[in-house]
Amino acid sequence: MPEWMRGARSNANGSLIDQSHESPEESSTPHQTDSSQRSLPSPHPDRSLRSAKLAALRARLSLSSKIPLQVLARALVDPSADAHPRFNNANLAFVGASLLQYHTSEWLVTRYPRLPMGILFAAMKGYAGEPALDRIARAWGVEAAAAPGEEVDPGYLQFSPDKPTVMMHKWGYARAEAKELTKYKWRRGMSSRVVFDDPFGKTIPEQTEELEVSDARNIREMIVPDTEKNAHANLVRAVIGAIYLHCGSETAKTFIKSYVLSRELDLSNLFNFKLPQRELTRLCARENFEPPVARLLSETGRLSRTPVFVVGIYSGHDMLGEAAGASLDAAKISACINALKAWYLYSPGDVGLPSDTLAEDATPWRPVYVDIGEIIS
Amino acid sequence: MTIRALEKVSVGQNGIGAFILQCRKLDVHYCNQSGSSRGMNSFIKSQLSKFASLNPQIEFAVSPRPRKHPVLIGHYINGKHKSICVKNMDSLQILKKAELLRDASGDKIKRVNKPITSINESVRGVWSPYHGNGMAV
Amino acid sequence: METRQALRPLSSLAHATSSVTRTPVFRSVASRRHQSTTSRTKKMLKIPPHPDFLIPRSGQNHIIYNPPPSAPSVFHTPFKFLPKSDPRRQANLIQLLRSSSGSHTSRGSTALPPPSRTVETRQKKYNVTREQVEEMRQLRASNPVTWSVIKLAEKFDCSPLFVMICCKASPEHKDNERQRLEAIKARWGTIRTKARDERKKRKVLLFRGAL
Hints:
By secondary structure, chain A is mainly alpha-helical. Chain A has helices spanning 3-14, 29-37, 52-60, 69-75, 90-111, 117-128, 130-139, 178-184, 190-196, 227-247, 249-261, 276-286, 328-344; strands at 165-166, 221-222, 271-273, 292-300, 308-315, 318-325.
């Protein structure tokens, strides 16, 4: 790009930016004093105004011009690239992660009120977990810099694979027995996962010894197994955090809806049953239905090598589920599984979300269906 | 604890929820001397700035390539790139080519046989010989 | 899936009234797939539309009922599983009436398909007393070989599962049984071993609902 082009683009972008915004540039004094001696760990915030990549990224995500380019540039700096909490995305990502988890869980719980806790955790992870966020960031067309540094274009995602970073799991407690859990594989109940563990039901690893990169705030730093994934996921969270700070909660919610919740995840494929027949019997007993009976709807080739039986599970006169199988047992088990899935995947349709009432002219909250709990917990 | 969960990752489809333009960067190469770049030079002078401001999602990079034919190279989010040689074309033709690169998805060009491709489950389900009453023919 | 059965008499009635005329020629050649020319084949394979899609003689609007010939989706909640507050419950009047009238009507019982096994409809007996359980445990402890689980189940007229819930074999007996089983498994050839392994894999898939 010739210099005259570059100038024209940056002017067009620069004129939109509100210079009085609170942005890293006002806190750039430590950076400037540093730069006299050695190079900065990440690009200077002022350079973000002249980055074509950054401007293109903002337009690609259709972000509002209320979000300064400096903040977007900060969202691209992983804590592993720049340990200073005022220049990396850890704080933005923390805000973004909590918003993301809130909106995802509220959407899932109101849409599928009967999901068992384990499936809910898996669904949360499928929508808002690290692998999903990583894919989202890659679909945004963000490239990773080969190595972080001052001279890198601010439009690149910057992280370094061998330095400690921040994991986004501060919504939870490190259990006192965390060591034994990994060592002896102690059992963790679902209720304790709700209370102690992170939003995806995974234990939070014990706090490792303090690493010297941590400044006053970022305490729980560690080497993550896949830094690249973690950095991409943190970018998505940080962008959501930036939108929340500069454009408000409604815009952040719309962004989450359109980029995260609009993705496709087949919830009926998340189930792995152990005792479907017993569970269905217990369900019918709990709900005062007649006990389930397997009935043969149709069959073919009983004495052949490849028989097919279609079995329906009936409670009284109502069929709860049906399936075909190669043996009576297999058909019965999969019919039970289908019946249980039909119970668990009940959806009251498009009812409102609790966060809808946070808008200004919102209608008062009408309570939605709440399930009484799991069948066998 | 009788149900275990399997881990799956959600699948995104561009255009559902949000649309992201798949062309992320457009390289514009020209030569100051050669006659084959005459149209390209006028495209850069007269139309490129307008085209760039209309498409802020794309990063434009203009660079000279002496003694070579002018070329447009589009870089896409899926990691592929497409290049079009625009020698001896006039600026309007080059604009057409730039628009073609902008609108491309970056995928290889494939024959589309089915009118609809979808990852959603069929509303009427997969046909099964054990269901339905059939129709006497 | 329930509505289908309930509505069937209605729809079949509609068919009778609509009285589709079919060419007799068509029926006679239905077993053949092709004719000697393309146009004849196409003509032969031209199937009249489903009677539900035809406009009835009276020319009035009518409901097209054409249920999918496929296994129902799990996202289609059965009527019984809908909570009381769900509006779909009130909308489905036929089901609502049927569920309120209860299972006493004779009409429903005749329509039910047969149970897949006889054990499905077996009533639980709860016939084993506490003393009998004690006796069962003594017998099992005294000689687990002669008083096997099956034998005890026959003696006390209960299920083998109940015997296994009540009694616990000694570790020596368990060890013997395990060794006996391993000796049997050691005699298996490659084909049988592979078949058993694949059976295990199929079972895993079955419980995931992937089979």
